[in-house]
Amino acid sequence: MERVICTCFVVCGLLSIVQGGSLIISEKFMNGDVLFLWNGDIAQEYDIQITMDKTLSDWDRQTVTQYTVEDALLYDSIGIDVRLPGDSSNNKMTYSVSKVESYVGDSVNISWTAPFFPRAGAYTVYHTGNVNRSIIVVTSSGATFDQTKYEYQSRPFDSTKIGFNIRDISRTDAGYYNGGLSPEAAWSGGGVVLIVHDTPSKPKIQGNLNIMVDSYSNLTCSSFSNTAPEYYARLHPLSYTWYVNNTKLSETRETLMLRVFRDHKYNHYSCTAKAKLESDRSDPVIINPMYTPDKLTILPEPLLNSDDKLAVKEGETIGPYTCTADCNPPCDITWKYKDSTSGGFFDVASTGSLDSQIVNRSIGVYRCISKFLPDSSFKKIESIRLDVLYLDKPLVSISTNESTYSNQAVQAQERTTLHISCNVRGNPYPSIRLQRSGSTDILKETSATEVLSHSITRLQCYDTGYYTCSGESTGFDSKERIFIVNVNCRPMFDYMDEFKTRYGCKSGDSMYVPVSVPIIANPPPKESDITWSGPTGQLAICSNVLQQNVIYKHLVKSFIPIKDRNFFGNYTLKYERESLITVTISAEELRINKSDLTEINNGGLIGLEGTVVVKVPIISDSLPLTSHITWLNPNGLMISDKSIVLQQTDGLYNYLITSILPVSGAKQFGNYRMLYDGNLITTIIIKEKDINMSPSAVLRKGNNSLSTMGLLISTILLSVLGTVFLGINIYHLYSRRKQANRKHDENSIGTAFYATQPNEQTYRNENKTEEHIYSAIDLQQE
Question: What is the greatest pairwise CA distance in the chain?
Answer without folding.
Answer: 179
